[in-house]
Design goal:
Layout: H1 2-6, H2 12-15, H3 18-40, E1 44-47, H4 48-65, H5 77-93, H6 101-106, H7 108-138, H8 140-145, H9 154-160, H10 171-202, H11 204-218, H12 235-247, E2 253-257, E3 262-263, E4 269-270, E5 275-279, H13 280-284, H14 303-306, H15 327-344, E6 345-349, E7 357-359, E8 363-365, E9 370-375
Antiparallel strand pairs: 1-9, 2-5, 3-4, 6-9, 7-8
Helix pairs in contact: 3-4, 3-15, 4-10, 5-7, 7-10, 9-10, 10-12, 10-15, 11-15
Amino acid sequence: QHRRLLAPAFHRDVLRPYVAIFNQSTHVMHAKWRAAAEAVGGTVALEVLEQLSLLTLDTLQKCIFSHESHCQEQPSEYIKAIMELSTLVVRRQRHPLHHPTWLYHLSADGRRFARACATVHSFTAAVVQRRRQALERLGHQAWLESHQGRSMDFIDLLLLAKDEDGNPLSDEDISAEADTFMFEGHDTTASGLAWLLYNLACHPHHQERCRQEVHELLKGRDVQDIEWEDLSHLPFTTMCIKESLRLHPPVTAVSRRCTEDVTLRDGRIIPKGVICLMSIYGTHHNPDVWPEPQVYNPLRFSPENSKERSPLAFIPFSAGPRNCIGQSFAMAELKVVVALTVTRFAVRLDTGRPPRRKTELILRAEDGLWLLLEPLPGVA
């Protein structure tokens, strides 16, 4: 039911103005990178996953709440709480004694978790309550007119959503959906971006081809921003993104409960009601589907090579009725950030710190994912 109500919030007409936010947040990150490079006189080594996490958190706060947190440039209690919750969830999974909720609440980690939750929930609840009061005070039409000149954010769209009987979502439901979008949307996209830059650093010829594709697209423009209409005109860059999501899927597995008996090819049956863990990582590295699965080859996703392939062979956003509702949002952000990055920086491997894959809530790297970034000449 909630998914049906949420669907309009991810329509292309809603996503279109978000592209300007993706550009803006990427410019802030690049300014930091250029300053760091200037400080060392050229090429700078940076741990990119944390930098990209701040970027995605920055964009989400703007897209969900219309809130300018400046979290890429200065500390934010809200952002600190979100990052702490992600760390604590992983730590709890690895500590069996912390699995019972009552016992966890008695531990130091449990108390930290409760404080961080309170910070996040109170921020969201305050925004929702403020918007609800404005809607009730102004009335529906006047409230809509007050938005002239600015696009609707996620909270606005949820306030307007109504079910088949004309009932709106409660404040608690809206807060829960906004919090879910923040948590599901920042780490996953940051992981996808970090591994994408790593794969382009490993393959400079693919990186250069992406760079030329973007240069050709932006030729003759006064402002070097990526626009919504540009996203469908980056075919090779899109292939590079998809191949990176295949090789390094941010979410490595999903679980689903069987709603009916499932008969496997060998005749064995998975009974109805059983919860199955499906490996996205394993599916993406299956040599029967993907020849030489460890090789990064964007041309796997060319139209001619994709023609005969099952749509369930590539599932970075899961599949079916419970797939990732935000995948169009994520793909748009991936395209904007990588297109702007390759036109402004040469991205190279930090051979002294090769990444080792580490599966947590998302696919990370032990001790971070380090890359060398060199500002390109003639780019402001």
